[in-house]
Amino acid sequence: MEIKPIRRTSISDQVSMQIKQLILDKDWKPGERIPSETELAELFGVSRVSVREALLKLNAIGLLESRFSGGNYVREVGADIYLNAIIPAAYVSSNSLLELLEFRQVMEAKQAGLAARKAKPEDVARLEEIHKDMVKNAGNLEAFSEADLRFHIELARITQNSLLVACMELIRDVLGENMQKLVAQRGYESGINDHRQILAAIRENDERRAIQVMDDHVADICKSYMRVLEGDKKQ
Q: Where are the alpha helices (DSSP H) in the chain?
């Protein structure tokens, strides 16, 4: 085991922390252009290089955005910004993936219910198109898997909840390479039938039915993934 010396917080980190606090405290409001690099360097008493590094970090986590017209602007802070801290944990191991599937089992049933409650005709139309893509691509593992995930992402968007959307986007990134294994394990007809039932509940704005069908669907996905893991261990 190697223990590394603790390093002091860099100047750019200190600058970014102060700017972040100013934004969260609403001293600099959404849509507002913040001072230039030169002005910030003078205000903080540091170099422009340190300021530039701090601004890059804040752009990366979504608190600021650089515009073609020049300058950095404060972005609207939504609940999804707080997911940035957990993203690295999603790319660890098969156990992490299993935990995310279990998370889906807890979350997606209620998400489907909320989507059923809020769904408008145009939302249903988008889900119907995605389901048609699933049916059309039965037999094409890659295309079918992509449509399957797209269906779930669309459900999150229908809820109009930025945190749920961000959660599903994170899950899509992690599941991307593993989804095909899940589809291969469960089969095309199983996925098509499950999503047809979910779609029917959404179309009827049947919140209770949407919750039940989605709960059964994700529970079966978890069981399928356990079978995938068992198969991988035997190879």
A: 11-24, 37-44, 48-60, 94-118, 121-136, 141-159, 162-175, 179-186, 188-203, 207-234
Alpha carbon distance 158, 54 (integer Å): 35
88 is written with which tokens?
A: 């690295």
Chain segment 96-134, per-residue pLDDT in tens: 667 777 888 888 999 999 999 999 999 999 999 999 999
The pTM score is: 0.64
**70 and 90, same domain (yes or no):** no
* Amino acid identity, position 147: A
Residue 105 lies in a domain: yes
Cα distances (angstroms) measured from residue 125 to each of 92, 182, 195, 199: 37, 26, 14, 10
Instruction: Compute the distance between CA of residue 189 and CA of residue 144 in angstroms, rounded to an integer.
Output: 11
Query: Domain ends where: 74, 100, 127?
Result: 74
Does residue 19 sit in the same domain as residue 133? no
Judge if 92 and 185 occupy the same domain: yes
| Residues spanned by the domain of 144 | 80-234
CB–CB of 64/34 below 8 Å? yes
